[in-house]
Amino acid sequence: MWVVWIRGVLGTDVHVDAAPASPAGDEGERPIRPWQLVVVSAARAAQSHGDPARALWESGDEELRARRTVVVRIDESVPGIRADRCLVDLAHGNATRGRATLERALRVLGALPSPVHTSPDPTSARFPPDGPALCRIPPADPTFVGRDDVLAALHRQLVTADSSTGLRSVCLWGLGGVGKTSTALAYAHQFQRYYETVWWLRAETEADLRGDLVDLGSQLGVPTDPDMSVMLREVQQRIAGTENTLLIFDNAEPESWLRDLWPRGRGVHLLVTTRQPDWTGLLSADQRTEILPPELTDAARLLLKASEAERPPPQEQEAARAVAADLGCLPLALAHAAAYVRQSGITLQHFHALLTTSRQRLLNEYQPDHSSTPVTLTWSLSLRRSDEQTPGTADLMALCAMLAPDEIPRQLLHVHADALGGTLGTVLADLVAFDAVVRSLVKYSLVKAAPDALRLHRLVQDAVLSGLTAADAVQWLTRAAAMVLAAFPEDVEDLEQWPACDRLTGHAQAIVVRYGQVPHELCAEPAVRALTAEVATVALRCGEYQLERGNFGTADSLLCHAVDLFRDVTGESGSLHLIASARSALVSYRLADLAEARRRAETTLAACSDATDPMTYALVLHTLARILIEYSELEDAHRFAQAAHHALDRAPADSVLPAGEGRAAVERTLGIIQWRRGDYPSAVRWIRRADAHEDDRRAHRHRFEPLELALAELSGDREQIRAIGEQAEASIAALETVLGSDHRDLVGRRNLAGEAAALLGDHDTARSMFRAALEGLVRSHGSEHPSTAWAERNLGGVLCRQGEHEEGLPLLRHALAIYERQYGTTHPYAAEGLAALGSAEAVCGLREQAEHHLREAGRMVELAYGPIHPKLAYIFEDLATLLLARDGASAEATALSDRAATIRLRARTAS
Asked: Does the pTM of the predicted model rise above 0.85?
């Protein structure tokens, strides 16, 4: 069109070409070449290869003058143009201004005679930015934002593609409501200046498309004919003969009748919107573009723009992001949300709260106007058509609606189909029938299929749920829970099972959430009871895995759900309720909420009775013992751990306990209690018994190596210290691959390797290990957790020994503050923190502070554990060294050294 307009303006011997044959031309045939104009658009410049004129517009002014060439830029941003004086810019202005700009520039260059020999008719050619001569498109969507990359790609595909083979066409496909039509509409408005004709055609039904083609034909001068088929053939011929025509087929399906109405012609561009991805025979794979929901940032911008929020405050911007995320960034749902906000005069923060409490009502009932339908009805027709064509699709969608929308494993659906029963179980067990159902759903963009998984949008799930009765929802949720439970590994402590657990965790969590959304109170009692039992067991299994994984917040939520649900099914004294309650107490212990952990454990123990099976009773007793260790109530902890050990003696041989429990776990706890008491011989005996009972697959994770290291240090066995450190370092890489960098087992290994290195004087290695451990704990537990204090204490001590007091001392003081806040100022943990600070202060030359802190730490440890506890050896030695440096030989320093030597000798005997 630009070429036609320029020729109409100039009316003289200037060669205008959008794609000249070669940059240099044929110099030998003409003594004087005519001036040539090279018309360059942004789309043309964006082509990576294949345009022989590229060298021309990338040339400088001197070379262009020599070739008698002028570059005409018709878009505002065209990369690669080097010309300055030989450049005519027509990207701005109207027809009059454009004509004046063109003539003036060419005269200055001497490319245009003055005056012009012929007087062109100003009406003979339309100025392209004025829009197409023939146009019917809906109004632009004022809320459309983003998708610039999609629009640019469409422009390149349609405008710059090779048209020698015929029609240029592109298909936009995707989920209903994802923005296919609005994207096509944005393209039509943004790029209409490239076309003589732009026509929007409804293509959902044959009647709609025929009617819209007839309307176009009448504008093209096709005479009316009573036989519509005759008239349509004539319309197609007229279209084929046009130049620069854009047709948009909106909401089309690749039906047989559409092939008969498919346009032809090298000057025709066709843009199709559809839900169906398979257009074999009409469009090749590179002519099909999937439209996905916009990124969260663009979705939030769309929501703010559509809700007409002027200068929204930060809290509204954050609410926009939250709403967009909850709606899966689907443009249709965002437009409905914005309309609700505008019409109701509320904020997005208020709407987000409503979406949380009344999601189904908003999605199922709200209509912005009489011509709109609720969001969930968008997919109702596709769901119905799919099930009519392939029975079983509605059942599969009902099942998938109960799971997480992303990554539903095909293996889960096929291998565990027997857990479903009924017709769907039969279909999923048959791979050919399974594939047929999936193909039908993919055809309507209801799911996306990958070789290993299915995916669907969360709002499609909402649409499916809205079509289920309460009884159907209970039935499908029960089946989904049974299927996930059948697939979820029972032994969640087995590292080899963790990938399978990870794949199923999202679906287990979704089932627990769905239980709170399904109106099960409207259903029969037996069905609800069966559902509750299945969901409670799913929550317990997944909660135990999250506990083992170190995701304590998630574990707490799941296990609390399990406790509440089992209470309804089995009562307070039911074994599964007791197990879930004990595990929830252990989570509180891991979260360092010791008061809540103790409350939960003691409440659970009170619910036990003579009828409680021995394994469950042992679990409850053992949990309480572990919590009491943290309170340093070692006598009671020992009593409960011994009772747990006796209960295990009464348990049947084939009994199964949750992860991390059993005889080895209880014996290890008894060993830790004796270690804390300072009774190292008893501690060693219990730890060795635990190791003997441990499963070989778990022994490397559960060995209590801190005791081994403490014994090696007290006995002065450097080779044993070195061996423990090397073994810990060697296991780090393998564990990190499986556990992740922040798991408590891996953090423990890093601390162990660091402690061994520090004892050997390798402070660089110790520093590296302690810092990595601290960073992992801050990420997983936060900066105020007691475990984080442990890592801070270790890192601070080694930093001070390397002379970096300014970083080391604050870490030690912060660690002590955590211990005192969490456990109290007289707790042994606080004493250990105080001793570490005193030792570091001595190294830093702060002798008075160091002496005070070491004396106070010794007093607290002796009060808690007695006068011969091994931890006193370190304190006495540091205090004696400090006194010797200050006073020289003294009776007190000698006495302290002798006491430390006696304690070490006792430890050597134990080892």
From this structure: no
**Dihedral, CA atoms, 18, 23, 28, 31, nearest 10 degrees?**
60
Angle of CA points 226, 227, 232, to nearest 5°: 115
Find how far residue 218's CA is from the centre of its chain.
52
At residue 87, φ and ψ (nearest 5 deg) are -120, 130
Using CA atoms, how far residue 647 sits from 339, 585, 600, 610, 612, in Å, is 64, 20, 20, 12, 11
Distances, alpha carbon 159 to alpha carbons 44, 163, 250, 270, 671, in Å: 8, 9, 20, 11, 78
**Residues of the chain predicted below pLDDT 70:** 1-34, 41-57, 61, 75-80, 82-86, 91-98, 105, 107-131, 160-166, 654-661, 694-704, 907, 910-911
Share in percent of the chain as helix, strand, coil (round to 5): 65, 5, 30
Q: Which amino acid is at 888?
A: G
Q: Where do runs of H (alpha helix) occur along 760-827? A: 763-781, 786-801, 805-823
Element containing residue 238 per DSSP (H, E):
helix 228-240
CA distances, 848 to each of 121, 312, 843, 854, 886 (Å): 102, 58, 12, 10, 10
- Any idea what the Cα angle at residue 584 is, between residues 583 and 585, rounded to 5°? 90
Bond preceding residue 115 cis, omega within 30 of 0: yes
Q: How far apart (Å, rounded) are the C-alpha atoms in residues 436 and 390?
A: 7
Distance separating alpha carbons of residues 711 and 531, to the nearest angstrom: 53
Q: Which residues pair with 8 in a beta bridge?
A: none
Closest-CA residue to 56 (of 42, 71, 43): 71
Cα 637-639-643 angle, rounded to 5 deg = 115
DSSP 34: P
Per DSSP, 286 falls in state: G
Cα 375 to Cα 564: distance, rounded to the nearest angstrom: 34
DSSP secondary structure string, 363-419?
A: HHH--SSTT---GGGGGHHHHHHHHHHSTTHHHHHHHHTTS-SS-EEHHHHHHTGGG
Dist CA 618 CA 687 (whole Å): 18
**Angstrom distance (rounded) from CA 298 to CA 324:** 9
The pLDDT, as a whole number, for residue 695 is: 60
Tell me the torsion sign for CA atoms 258, 261, 264, 267.
negative
SS3 175: coil
Q: What is the pLDDT of residues 595-619, one digit of tens each?
A: 999 999 999 999 998 889 999 999 9
Which three-class secondary structure state does DSSP give residue 128?
Answer: helix
Task: Report the pLDDT value the prediction gives residue 799, as an integer from 0 to 100.
Answer: 95
Q: Model confidence over 735-750: pLDDT tens digits? A: 888 788 888 888 888 9
Q: Do 558 and 543 meet the contact criterion of CB atoms below 8 Å apart?
A: yes
Q: Which residue has the tokens 């074999």?
A: 280
- Token pair in block for residue 22: 């070669």
- How far apart CA 362 and CA 343 sit, in angstroms, is 14
Query: Any idea what the Cα angle at residue 151 is, between residues 193 and 136, rounded to 5°?
Result: 45
- Cα dihedral 242/245/249/250 (nearest 10): -150
The token pair at 554 is 């998630």
Bridging pattern class, strands 453-455 and 168-173:
unpaired
Res 29: pLDDT? 43
Q: Are 483 and 419 in contact (CB under 8 A)?
A: yes
